[in-house]
């Protein structure tokens, strides 16, 4: 039988309590730290992508930029790969007559009031591709005075492998965009035509 004095001494003993408490808190602390590191890295990678995109977009607005598109894209890749070595980048450019046209559908006459361009309804083919589109932008850099939407999508694997434990996917995809007007090196040309919906 244990003496009553020994039981009282055991009640007051705190040796090793910090180790037990740390063992209980450590897994949660580790997950929170990994989440913060992962989020911080993603924000930094996005900031690098946006900065590189802004510099490249300015280089795209001058006359003759169509001849150096791959060099302009390589500038963005070079800057991003310094931070995210395994990044895969996808580039797209769409040209619009005005800033207000960005992301806007081509105009059409909705004769049957169904909200869809169909049944031979007339439409303005703003991008000159021969069909009605939800986005009136023409692919490419456009011409003088055109507003160009320059978009880069970046995909890379997470740098902190335990991120999947907190429900995050193994790869990160982010997109950066900017819209700039081409310099007035020539008269603005329009490719818009009138067509009929099918």
Can you walk through the features of this model?
With 198 residues, the protein is α+β, with helices and mostly antiparallel strands. It has one domain. Helix content is 33%, strand content 21%. It has 3 helices and 6 strands, in the order αααββββββ. It has helices at residues 4-12, 17-60, 69-81, and strands spanning 88-96, 122-125, 138-139, 147-157, 171-181, 193-196. The protein has a 4-stranded antiparallel beta sheet with strand order 3-1-4-5, with helices on one face. Helix 2 (17-60) runs antiparallel to helix 3 (69-81). The longest helix has 44 residues, at 17-60. The N and C termini lie far apart (96 Å).
Per-chain topology:
Elements: H1 4-12, H2 17-60, H3 69-81, E1 88-96, E2 122-125, E3 138-139, E4 147-157, E5 171-181, E6 193-196
Antiparallel strand pairs: 1-3, 1-4, 2-6, 4-5
Helix pairs in contact: 2-3
What is the C-alpha radius of gyration, as a whole number of Å?
Answer: 29 Å
Biggest sheet features: 4 strands, antiparallel
Helix percent band: 25-40%
Q: SSE order, as H and E?
A: HHHEEEEEE
How many structural domains does the protein architecture include? Answer: 1
Count of separate DSSP helical elements: 3
**What low-confidence regions span 5 or more consecutive residues with pLDDT below 50?**
none
């Amino acid at each position: 039988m244990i003496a009553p004095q020994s039981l009282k001494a055991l009640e007051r003993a705190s040796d090793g309590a910090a180790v037990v408490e740390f063992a209980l808190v450590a897994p949660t602390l580790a997950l929170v730290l990994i989440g913060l590191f992962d989020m911080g890295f993603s924000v930094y990678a996005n900031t690098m992508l946006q900065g590189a995109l802004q510099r490249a977009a300015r280089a795209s607005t001058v006359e003759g930029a169509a001849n150096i598109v791959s060099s302009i894209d390589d500038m963005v890749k070079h800057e991003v790969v310094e931070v995210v070595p395994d990044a895969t980048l996808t580039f797209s450019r769409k040209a619009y007559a005005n800033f207000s046209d960005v992301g806007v559908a081509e105009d059409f006459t909705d004769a049957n009031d169904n909200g869809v361009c169909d049944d031979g309804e007339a439409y303005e083919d703003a991008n000159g591709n021969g069909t009605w589109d939800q986005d009136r932008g023409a692919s490419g850099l456009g011409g003088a005075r055109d507003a160009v939407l320059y978009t880069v999508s970046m995909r890379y694997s997470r740098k902190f492998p335990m991120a999947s434990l907190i429900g995050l996917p193994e790869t990160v995809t982010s997109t950066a965009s900017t819209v700039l007007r081409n310099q007035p090196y020539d008269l603005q040309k329009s490719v818009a035509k009138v067509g009929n919906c099918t």
